[in-house]
């Protein structure tokens, strides 16, 4: 890490210290969890760079899920679940900042549940969570362990509800699906109220999530990402560093 980046990180940490109670909001993407061993999507080693029978973007679309549920679950369970992953330094520090009253909300594009595992309570999951699943027919809720058990029992490897035989779908937002309106509005409200907004580990390429920073009207916008983003010019500070390093204080 060069001296300028180190100075910028110190500036960021001072801004955190100076933030009024509840004035900080964190908006994170896949890069927040890569240090926990979960691959991101768009990096050279990410999910989209891997070779599959169909493009990964297609395999995690709603139309593919409906037309090819077995192939969907083969891919989803193999590549989208990382149930042994543990929170990293960024997750832990954010939970600490919430406990001391600095951080009011975590807005995340991730579906891994690691923020809650680290102890954060106000987590707005824009794209849902692999930990929640529901029957598409009767609405019954199932844990991820129950989904996997039902898949193991199924002749076609498609998890089904024991009560009505409906397909059990992960509570994640697939391509071609809309975000949950309540979660989206809560995210807009949190960002609009923030004095300090930290955007980390996201390419800011996926909408409508990427457009959330347009609602920020506070004092400092900080972007933490290893590579440039389309919104860098809007930021008061851009840190080309690992998220865990920046939050190691």
TrEMBL record:
Domain Deacetylase sirtuin-type: 2-249
EC number per UniProt: 2.3.1.286
Pfam families: SIR2
InterPro entries: DHS-like_NAD/FAD-binding_dom (IPR029035), NAD-dep_sirtuin_deacylases (IPR050134), Sirtuin (IPR003000), Sirtuin_cat_small_dom_sf (IPR026591), Ssirtuin_cat_dom (IPR026590)
Binding locations of Zn(2+): 135, 138, 161, 164
Enzyme superclass (EC): transferase
SUPFAM superfamilies: DHS-like NAD/FAD-binding domain (SSF52467)
Key words of the record: Metal-binding, NAD, Transferase, Zinc
Active site location: 127 (proton acceptor)
One example GO MF annotation: metal ion binding
PANTHER family referenced in this protein's UniProt entry, alphabetically: NAD-DEPENDENT PROTEIN DEACYLASE, NAD-DEPENDENT PROTEIN DEACYLASE SIRTUIN-5, MITOCHONDRIAL-RELATED
Protein name, entry field: protein acetyllysine N-acetyltransferase
Lineage: Bacteria, Bacillati, Actinomycetota, Coriobacteriia, Eggerthellales
